[in-house]
Amino acid sequence: MAGEIRLGTMATIAMLVVLASLGLVDALDRFGAWPVLPALFPIVPLAIAAVVAVLMRSLDFDDILRGGNIQSSGVGWALGGTALSTVVLVASPVGTALGGGRGILLIAAFVVGLALASLLVAPALRSTRATTLAEACGARFGATTRALAAFAVMLTLLPLLAAETTLVGTIASRMLGLSPRLAEDVILALVALGCIAGGLRAAIALAAVLGPIVALSYLVPVAAVSLGETWLPMPWIGLVEPGTLTAASRIPNFVIVAFAISLAVGVAVMPSLLFPAWTAAKGLPTRRHLLLGVGFAAAILLAAPSYAVYGRLAGIDAAGDPLGLVVNFPNRVGLSAMPAVMLIGGLLSAALITIAMALATTATTIGQDLYGGLLERRAPAGRRIFITRLGMILVIGAILGINRLSLGSVAMLAGVSLSIAAASLGPLLLVGWRLAATTRTAAVAAIAVGLWLTVADVLLARFAPAFSSAYLGMGTVTPTVLGPTGWFGLPVGLSGLIGLVCGLATLLAVSLLPGIHWPLVWLRLRYLARRLKRKFADWRQRIATPPPVATAEAAAEPVIAEAESAPEAPPPAADIPMFGPFPELENPAPGDTRTIRHLPGV
User: Fold this and answer.
1) Looking at residue 44, what is its pLDDT?
2) What is the rounded distance in angstroms from the CA atom of residue 347 to the CA atom of residue 189?
3) Per residue in 491-501, is it b (16+ CB within 10 Å) or e — as a string?
4) What are 311-369's pLDDT values in tens digits?
5) What's the burial of 241, exposed, middle or buried (CB within 10 Å: 0-12/13-18/19+)?
6) Which residues are CB-contacts of 337 (< 8 A; sequence separation ≥ 6)?
7) What topology in the membrane does the UniProt record assign (predicted)?
8) 166 vs 191: CA distance, rounded Å
């Protein structure tokens, strides 16, 4: 119970510090203090994150790579905090403002994916007692599957890390007056120090401690606005407003369906959402605590329609300034400085959680799966920890390179991350894991097909649009918020749907087709083909020979001829004797005077 009490104590102390800081900010704002002082409040969550990382420092293998001895309630809070990334908190109001009811549908798809991750996928993976997601796949389907799953995890989390750092750098620059790149570097350095010191244990602790702060910061602005219409603060009042279901732009139905499927499946297998739910060493987390984490995230995200409705009334254009719908919301609706700086601090805290979880997961995959699983399988624990920490530095360098090259917008990078997760890991973890006929070959083929199709679609549409449009039938390559258009008219941010369908078809085909008795199937097909051939021939014959057309004269002549050539009708049955006449004998007895008739044929 020590680990649980420690996390609970740290979360309580962190919340008290935040509330005290907010009271100070409100006092400074009321007395007309220098405006720079209230703007320094976002530093408070950063300081809390640094303290938590220092307290969670460790050199133990289980702490660095497995997350330590986290209790069930701590896992539930960590799960909810991990789901509330900055991209999700910003995209939910924007999607509702642009799509109306369809945006709420996307929020529901995200919650469904989160429930699948925590209640369906994570317990199945944890039954293998593996350290990483890729190691769990390898324990079930072999070393090749483990290697492919490790690459899929890395390719999933790198775009997500790039999207989060880009977005949080822009948010921090608006509040603190720093350049976006400098803000990115500062936040990445802070997260790197925390993860190097405590590994996955520090990342989970950040999610559990900062999660309530994120929730409070996100709900307070819309709750304050709702006080003008209700007696109680209701941050979910946007759900009952008529303007919530009004769409500001026309989004095709197939895009919404593709986005919902990609979102649900991608979140369900997202590695950064799985680790808090199954790394606890003292047994499987209870369903009650996991449902608490899912409900906690859902309650926060259902406040997004309030941002959309009141932001629209305040004149915020979600299409022209999507980030401003959340960041500028307190100022545009006339709130004081306290909700504004609190919201910025909450968004920074959400980014810290997501970056820490994704960075720790990616580095653990490098140290435990790529190095320990492929290069040196008998490497000691100390060497794996060293490679894991070195991997954190390499991943940070890769993130900085992606951001400097400006490979895509935040929405495109986040969509690509979800697409890769859904296409590569979705068929195996959601279907193949529970299908008894799934073989190692089927697992390898499913991951390879989904991963290759998605990555190839993104690379071709992004770096070779002219070639792709002219020779690969990818349609007119037009830039959208989710990137250029790829195959079947879908943006590359939704390309995971194609890989998901093909990967699932490959998994089922390779798993089920070898077990079919093909000679019997061939005989049945031949029998069916012969029946169809005979029916087709009869049908063609009926069509080729039309019925004769009879006139009045032609119809009368056959009747007369038939009447002339017809034989005589037999006598009535009543005139024929029952037992006679009998044929007469050929050699009668002497003295017999009867007439002799000969029996025909005798």
Assistant:
1) 85
2) 18
3) bbbbbbbbbbe
4) 888 888 887 788 888 988 888 888 888 888 889 889 999 999 999 999 989 999 999 89
5) middle
6) 25, 26, 28, 29, 35, 38
7) Multi-pass membrane protein
8) 14
Residue 310 and residue 294 in contact, taking contact as beta carbons nearer than 8 Å? no
pLDDT tens readout for residues 112-142: 999 998 888 888 888 787 888 899 999 999 9
Burial class (CB in 10 A: 0-12, 13-18, 19+), 266: buried
Say how far apart CA 191 and CA 202 lie, in whole Å: 10
* Structure-token pair, residue 555: 């119809």
CB atoms within 10 A of CB 431: 16
Say which residue the tokens 């190691």 belong to.
135
Where b means 16+ CB within 10 Å and e means fewer, 152-187 reads bbbbbbbbbbbbbbbbbbbbbbbbbeeebeebbbeb
Q: 0.85 cut: is pTM over it?
A: no
Instruction: For residues 263 and 496, give the distance between their C-alpha atoms in angstroms, rounded to a whole number.
Output: 9
From 163, 193, 39, 27, select the one nearest 91 (Cα to Cα): 163
pLDDT at 253 over 50: yes
For 183-227, the pLDDT digits (tens) are: 888 888 888 888 888 888 888 888 888 989 999 999 999 998 888
Determine the pLDDT at residue 584. Answer: 47
Q: At what angle do helices 381-405 and 143-176 cross, to 10 degrees?
A: 50
Axis crossing angle, helix 72-83 with helix 337-364, rounded to the nearest 10? 110
- C-alpha neighbours within 13 Å on the C-beta side of residue 407: 23
Min mean pLDDT across 38-42, 453-457, 590-594 is at: 590-594
- For 483-507, give the DSSP string: EEB-GGG-BGGGTHHHHHHHHHHHH
Nearest to 502 by CA among 457, 437, 563, 554: 457
By the 8 A CB rule, do 231 and 367 touch? no
Residue corresponding to tokens 């805290």: 349
- Tokens 């220092």 correspond to what residue? 54
Mean pLDDT, rounded, for 155-176? 87
Closest CA to 504 of 453, 456, 455, 446: 446
C-alpha distances in angstroms, 353 versus 85, 100, 294, 510, 600? 7, 29, 16, 39, 115
Name the DSSP class of 62: I
Q: Are 429 and 148 in contact (CB under 8 A)?
A: no
Select from 153, 137, 147, 431 the least CA-distant residue to 265. 431
For residues 468 and 392, is the Cβ–Cβ distance under 8 A? no
pLDDT-derived band at 550, boundaries 50, 70, 90: low
Please, which residues bridge with residue 491 across strands? 485
Integer Cα distance of 584 and 586 in angstroms: 6
DSSP state of 41: T
Structure tokens at 155: 């390719």
